Amino acid sequence: MRRTLRVAAYAVVVRNGQILLARSPDGAGGHEWVLPGGGMEHGEDPYDTVRRELMEETGYRIDVTGLLGIDSSRRTFTHRRRRQEDHQGLRLVYEGLITGGELRPETNGSTDLAAWHDLGAMSGLTKVGLVDVGLELWLERPVTGRVAKTGTQG
Description:
By secondary structure, the chain is an alpha+beta fold. The chain has a single domain, classed as Nucleoside Triphosphate Pyrophosphohydrolase (Alpha-Beta Complex).
């Protein structure tokens, strides 16, 4: 079984009761909202990753104001060549503050829209689980830098 690891950095950016999210195709013809951010390039610092990715996906420049925490996920799936893959994702979640730029969609990237969403409307939004993890880290600010996962220990 092939093992893969992806390290990525994301930002929780909240302003005036709204959170900044990017929209990504879900692979089934629909869309889901994601935290702006993405994969680290080899040799890149995660701090630089989150700033670069947020600019690419939203048009905004940010200052990173803190590290909220780290989320780790692991799943096994069959790759398109029928090869089993054991994939781990390590996601660093930062807090960011808009310092410039203008809201715009990404061009030829992994997302197609960026928008502000009311924090009170999160339950009705089609989104990936990392959005909820990021919001919980932002709200709770656990000293461990991680949120408890339902159905798991630790």
